[in-house]
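Allow me, if you will, to draw on your knowledge of protein folds for a short while. I have a record of one protein: its chain in single-letter code and its fold written as discrete structure tokens. I remain grateful for any guidance, and I place the record below:
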Amino acid sequence: MPEGDTVWNTARVLEKALVGDVLTGSDFRVPKLATTDLTGWTVAESASRGKHLLLRLTRADEAMTLHSHLRMEGAWRAYAPGERWTGRPAYLIRVVLRTKRSVAVGYHLHEVTLVPTAAEDGLVGHLGPDLLGADWDAAEAARRIAGQPDTTIAEALLDQRNLAGVGNLYKAETLFLRGVWPWTPVRDVKDLQGTVTLAQKLVASNRGRWTQTTTGSLRRGQTSYVYGRKAMPCRRCGAAIHKADLDERVTYWCPHCQPQP
């Protein structure tokens, strides 16, 4: 599932494949960019902001940013020229970027946009402090969450305007480790700053690897406390883990370790 660490790792893949090179070709399979040609542009930087990817391009005195959002299904893959593209079915390809040494293919991307780099703020300026960014500020994230006292803490952690980078996995695991029932109103959460600080530590601990773990174990079936473990015994108390589906979001919790107030 693309969460803050997955997007950060993806930015590193694109950095290794493209940064410093001149694009020799591009193919956009989204209507609004179908005729766009980025041949001749240099890939200057690959960055992430929460769950957003930002490829910064330069040509002479111009600077543009190719923005994409992975949401639930998106992915970027890098290949050597001539290598078979095996990431996803071809009909899911949205963007292809070519250099002399690499081909970057974006599958099932959302919100693919090309804007002047100076206008990036219009795309990501609404986001809260980035859990993996230089702007991370636990106090500011807690302040933003506290401004919505009637919102459930689970919803508040997923709101990217409060803090950028938490998804269903880290939401569920953070609340379990804090012993907080997911539907607790923000006003009743005792230590908001401690909660967001833990979320940041969990996300940051998985930078540089694709296996996401919150338990410290990388062994299959042992990487989470509650996420993905419906009806399985809690690792702390043995009670059966519960699961609830809310629209496109899912929540896991232990009814004993995270009791309803």
The longest helix spans residues 4-18. The chain is about 20% helix and 25% strand. The helical segments are 4-18, 121-124, 138-146, 153-158, 168-178, 192-204. Residues 4-124 form a domain with the N-terminal domain of MutM-like DNA repair proteins fold (CATH 3.20.190.10).
